[in-house]
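EI: anyone free to look at a 216-residue chain?
SC: sure, send it
EI:
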Amino acid sequence: MPALKVFRSNKTNDLIRTSHETHHGVSSSAARDLFHYWTFASVSLFSLVSGYEDHSEVAGPVQPIVAMVGENITLPCHLKPSTDASSMVVEWSGPVLNPSFVYFWKNGHQHLVFIDPSYEGRMSLLINNLKHGDLSLNLIDVKLSDDGTYTCLVPQLGKSALVRLTVEMAELSSIPTQDPVGRTNFKGCRPVLSTWIPVMVFSTLLLTVFGVYLYK
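SC: here you go
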């Protein structure tokens, strides 16, 4: 009888040990699968975020834009690569140190509330090009006060680009110069007053001699 009791005890222990090993194996396998899934999800999410960042650049020109007073010019800015920006907020701020904008685009149209009065009516976006990611700003009737660095900002992306505008005065056309007193220089014609003086002196002397001769 004792031998049978021992047999049953050993069998029970084997069953318990087998059950524990099986349960432990299942748990380990599930943990490994969960870890692999979490790792894959993390890498995928990181790749997605990185890809979003990589595809959200706001680019401007490398070289400054040079314009003459009175000209109409374009301040280039675009999304890189091209992305539809029609529904995005686009903010252009100028070189002046105040919270106003030179152009503010939101909800599909321009807002004039925060626009600097000196730029009102002189700035415009190429609206039809927004769907291609073109955020370039047109500026008409350039003034000396427009000189400076402009910021093209897309708040939704948290990205911006700087555009440097250099404004120069147009060269003055050549103006006819005036010679010293008594002389005028105009289109190659040079009437000189001093040339009349010898003629007048000579004429006076001639008349004097002729008059003396007649008097005798």
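EI: Residues 149 and 164 are 4 Å apart (CA to CA).
SC: 👍
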